Amino acid sequence: MTLVGVLSADQYLYSSDFRSYEKTFSLLTQVIGRAGRSKFPGKAIIQTFTPDNEIFDFVKQQDYEAFFNQEIKMRDAMLYPPFSDICIVGFVSENERKIKEVSKNFFSHIRQEVSKNYRNIPIRILKPIEAMVKKISGKYRYKIVIKCRNNKKFREMLSNIINDFYREYSTYKVKIFVDINPDTIL
Questions:
Q1: CA 16 to the chain's CA centroid
Q2: DSSP line for 29-55
Q3: What digits encode the pLDDT tens for the residues 142-176?
Q4: pTM over 0.85
Q5: How far from 150 is each of 40, 160, 181, CA to CA, in Å?
Q6: In sequence order, which ranges of the chain are alpha helices (DSSP H)?
Q7: Whole-angstrom distance, CA of residue 166 vs CA of residue 57
Q8: Helix or strand holding residue 132 (H, E)
């Protein structure tokens, strides 16, 4: 194979998953590595709206170490793995008004609980937002992203909060689920 083309690389690069640069770098270096393996030289063409993005220089040079050094600095600054764990608290309901109310109240409840009883747990709680795909099979989806350390104390706290919350909001018919370190946070 002497020519490889990647169309719309930006859709991978600028997704809302914190791993998007890592995944894009991996995919592009693999694809580019396919071109020119035989006696003929290879060429790769990448379509992008942001050709000045440093990741394309790292890919072009196949510079894994430089990419890693940049990525690890960003993850440290943003408190992403490996510097923390990611916990998604998801909400699912057929009633959009109720799911918004429940997710906002859960957010307030968890913040109060942390400030009152779990001050020694390093944690960042992001406000509830709609899932990337807001509605599936007639059910609305919202989520709260929590950056924390997945340890016994955190899991105990979250379990207690969810149990309290279900008692208070059991009539709302909103399902709550927890996913720690999911494959994607979309």
A1: 6
A2: HHHHHHTT-SSS--EEEE--S-TT-HH
A3: 999 999 988 888 888 899 889 888 888 777 889 99
A4: no
A5: 50, 15, 9
A6: 10-13, 20-34, 54-61, 64-78, 96-117, 152-169
A7: 50
A8: strand 129-136
Distance CA 54, CA 66 (A): 10
Tens digit of each residue's pLDDT (9 = 90 or more) over 33-82:
777 777 778 788 889 999 999 999 999 899 999 999 999 999 999 888 99
Partners of residue 87 on adjacent β-strands: 146, 180
| Nearest alpha carbon to residue 155 among 90, 75, 163, 60 | 163
- Whether residue 92 contacts residue 128, with contact meaning beta carbons closer than 8 Å, is answered with no
Contact 48, 10 (CB under 8 A): yes
Length of the chain in residues, anyone? 186
> Which uninterrupted H or E stretch holds 89?
strand 85-93
Cβ-count burial 80-107 (b if 16+ within 10 Å, e if not): beeebbbbbbbbbbeeeebbbebbeebb
